[in-house]
Design brief:
It comes from Penicillium cosmopolitanum. The chain is globular. 31% of the residues are buried. α3 (79-111) runs parallel beside α5 (144-167). The protein is built from 10 helices and no strands. The model is unreliable at 3-11 and 260-277 (pLDDT under 50). The protein has 277 residues and is mostly helical. The chain has a single domain (17-60, 75-252), classed as Up-down Bundle (Ferritin), CATH 1.20.1260.140. The structure holds fe (ii) ion (2 copies). Residues 90, 93, 129, 132, 183, 235 line the site of one fe (ii) ion. Residues 93, 129, 180, 183, 235, 238 line the site of one fe (ii) ion.
Length: 277
């Protein structure tokens, strides 16, 4: 396990202080699929399916559950393989929000027009994904092979997504929505593997300190299972936000834009967190 110094400044409020999830909110998260109803949706969904298939094939991804007998031994997931997968996926997941936010920011100042509240949500998503990555990096040290894969993947994905976002932001948000559907499925499978007793090294492991501070995890809710539930709730949120943004025109107001903090105060803002009861 990596040794890091976790300084106290992480506990301080930032611009993107995470809303506090209730236990019910993290337990109620469900896998979901938005039916592809247009050719744009089908393009987005097919791209995600091809990427997922390629990623699964290359990383030998497979879980014990629900078909443990038919999964070959080489395709079962250990704690280390889950962490490797999380680290790779989260390093990629931090790209779309930053690209979309950056391009909308540049467009706003270039065209001298307002953005209608999208940029903050998109950058917050990128920040949240980076916190997922940093959390898992507390639990595993990436190999040089992994670092090279991340480098290559970021170069390809950043270039491709930037170009695609310039052409069709709607398709890109739909693509991210479908990608996040897969993320929810992945974390749900990891949780099921844990519940089925296939990840014994995590049974007594506590979430890293930075995760406890970031999600403001309550004292009786700081185990690895809880951490996976918190991350999965974030992914479900990204899924719903991006599918919604994919339905909107570019000049529509962002329905997820934060309420002014001065007017309603932070506690109320947290209660108005984007994951609804
Ligand atoms: Fe993530
Ligand atoms: Fe995500």
């Amino acid at each position: 396990m990596r040794q890091h110094s976790t300084s106290t400044h992480l506990a301080q409020k930032s611009s993107w202080t995470h809303p506090i999830y209730t236990k019910k909110q993290i337990l109620d998260v469900q896998t979901a699929h938005r039916k592809a109803s247009s050719w744009q949706d089908r393009v987005a969904l097919s791209t995600v399916k091809v990427l997922r298939w390629g990623m699964d094939f290359v990383t030998g991804y497979g879980t014990y559950s629900p078909i443990s007998i038919s999964v070959p031994k080489t395709r079962t997931m250990t704690e280390q393989k889950w962490l490797t997968r999380f680290i790779f996926l989260e390093s990629v997941a931090g790209v779309p929000g930053m690209v979309a936010g950056m391009l909308r920011h540049l467009k706003s100042i270039r065209m001298m027009r307002r953005d209608h509240g999208w940029i903050e949500t998109l950058l917050e998503e990128a920040y949240n994904e980076r916190m997922h990555l940093l959390t898992f990096l507390k639990l595993a040290e990436p190999t040089w092979t992994m670092r090279c894969m991340v480098l290559g993947a970021q170069w390809v994905f950043f270039s491709g997504f930037s170009l695609a976002y310039l052409i069709s932001p709607q398709i890109c948000h739909r693509f991210v929505g479908y990608l996040e559907e897969e993320a929810v499925i992945t974390y749900s499978k990891a949780i099921k593997d844990f519940d089925d007793g296939h990840l014994p090294l995590w049974e007594k492991l506590e979430a890293p300190e930075m995760a406890i501070k970031y999600w403001q995890m309550p004292e009786n809710n700081r185990c690895m299972r809880s951490l996976l539930l918190y991350v999965r709730a974030d992914e479900a949120n990204h899924r719903d936000v991006n599918h919604t943004l994919g339905n909107l025109n570019q000049t529509d107001p962002n329905p997820f834009a934060a309420k002014p903090k001065i007017e309603i105060g932070l506690p109320q803002l947290q209660q108005n967190g984007r994951v609804k009861d």
